Amino acid sequence: MKFVLEVTMDDAALAKDPAGELGRILRYWGGNLRQYALSPGDGSVIYDSEYREVGRWHVADQTE
Description:
Blueprint lengths: L1 E6 L4 H5 L1 H15 L10 E5 L5 E8 L4
Antiparallel strand pairs: 1-3, 2-3
């Protein structure tokens, strides 16, 4: 299996403070992962601190 996290850092809060915003995203989603079985197909949209969609994470099997 693979854990895939993609975040677009081009605009909004991520452009203003990329390290701070990405750190917040990683802390929030890292803490939230216990809510998932972490099986292939699991995933969720990722939002920045201004609640704008900036990416997603998902669990994939090795063929992806």
